[in-house]
Write a structure and sequence with these properties.
Layout: H1 4-17, E1 22-28, H2 30-33, E2 42-48, E3 56-62, E4 65-73, H3 75-86, H4 91-98, E5 100-104, H5 108-119, H6 129-151, H7 157-176, H8 186-191, H9 193-199, H10 207-216, H11 222-239
Helix pairs in contact: 3-5, 4-5, 6-7, 6-11, 7-11, 10-11
C-alpha cells in the first residue's frame, strides 16, 4: 500500500532524480520507524556525486506534507558520522542505517549505508580527567545558581533549571558512554522502551540515573524541582568520583 506521504515525497524527488549529479535518496525518521504523528515531517537525504562542491538543506510543503531535505556529496557522510561520534550522537548514521532507499543509481547510496552500519556499533570516547573535573564543576555551579532564583520565585528559574538539567544529561552521558539526543526526545529516551526499540537506541546504561532524571521532568514546583535536581547532581558526583565545593581546584597548563 502506498501512503499519501509517499506520493508527496515522490513528487518532491522528481525534480532531483533527473539531475546527473544526484546518486540517490533515502527517506528516514519517524515515517519509517512507525512513530510518526500528525505533526511529523518527512525526512529525506539526497546523496550527490563527490565532485559537487556544495550542500543544501531546506523545507518544502508538498500535498500538505512538510518535507525536510538534506542534499550532500556522498563523502560528507563520513564526516557527519565522525562528528556525531565525537558528540555522542548516532542520529545521522541511524537515519541511513534504518532508512529506506528510494533510489540508488550506481551503488553510491548503498556505500553510504554501509558506512553508517559500520559506525553505529562503535563505542563513544570517554572524557579525560580534565574534562571530567570541569563537568563536575559546571554541574555544581549551575545548581548553586538556582538557589537564589528559587528564593525569589524568579520567572527565570525554569529557563535556568532546564539548561542545568540538560547539562547534567549531556555531561554524565559522556561519562558513561551514553548517546546524546535532541532535548525534545529526552523524556521518551529516558522512559519509553517502545520508542527506543523503534529507533534502535540503547537505554541509558544506568537505570537509577534515568529514574532520577525522569523525576526532574515531572514537577512544576520550583522547590521540588530544585530538590530533585540536587539529588540527581549528588548522584552523578558520587558516580564521577566525588565533588566538594570546599577546596575544589583544577590546575592546567597556561597557553
Amino acid at each position: 500500500m502506498v501512503h499519501s506521504w509517499e506520493k508527496a515525497l515522490d513528487r518532491f524527488l522528481l525534480g532531483w532524480k533527473g539531475r546527473k549529479y544526484v546518486k540517490g535518496a533515502v527517506v528516514c525518521g519517524s515515517r519509517i520507524t512507525g512513530t510518526a504523528t500528525r505533526f511529523s515531517d518527512i525526512d529525506v537525504h539526497i546523496v550527490m556525486d563527490d565532485k559537487i562542491k556544495w550542500r543544501e538543506r531546506g523545507l518544502k510543503i508538498v500535498d500538505g506534507y512538510l518535507i525536510e531535505y538534506f542534499a550532500n556529496p556522498a563523502r560528507m557522510y563520513r564526516k557527519y558520522y565522525a562528528e556525531g561520534s565525537t558528540a555522542n550522537s548516532r542520529s545521522v548514521a541511524r537515519m541511513f542505517a534504518q532508512g529506506r532507499v528510494i533510489f540508488d543509481k550506481d551503488g553510491t547510496v548503498a556505500r553510504v549505508v554501509r558506512w553508517a552500519r559500520h559506525t553505529i556499533p562503535k563505542p563513544f570516547r570517554r572524557p579525560d580527567r580534565m574534562s571530567l573535573e570541569n563537568a563536575k564543576y559546571r554541574m555544581w555551579d549551575s545548581l548553586d545558581g538556582l538557589q537564589d532564583l528559587v528564593a525569589r520565585r524568579s520567572p527565570g528559574f525554569w529557563h535556568s533549571y532546564y539548561l542545568a538539567f540538560d547539562g547534567v544529561i549531556e555531561q554524565y552521558g559522556r561519562h558513561v558512554g551514553a548517546e546524546s539526543g535532541a532535548p525534545v526526545r529526552t523524556w521518551q529516551y529516558l522512559t519509553d522502551a517502545r520508542y527506543r526499540k523503534a529507533h534502535g537506541i540503547d537505554p541509558f546504561p544506568e537505570p537509577k540515573f534515568a529514574a532520577l532524571a525522569a523525576a526532574c521532568m515531572k514537577t512544576r514546583d520550583m522547590k521540588t524541582a530544585h530538590r530533585r535536581l540536587s539529588r540527581l547532581v549528588a548522584h552523578v558526583h558520587r558516580r564521577m568520583g566525588g565533588f566538594s565545593a570546599d577546596g575544589w581546584r583544577l590546575r592546567s597548563k597556561a597557553p
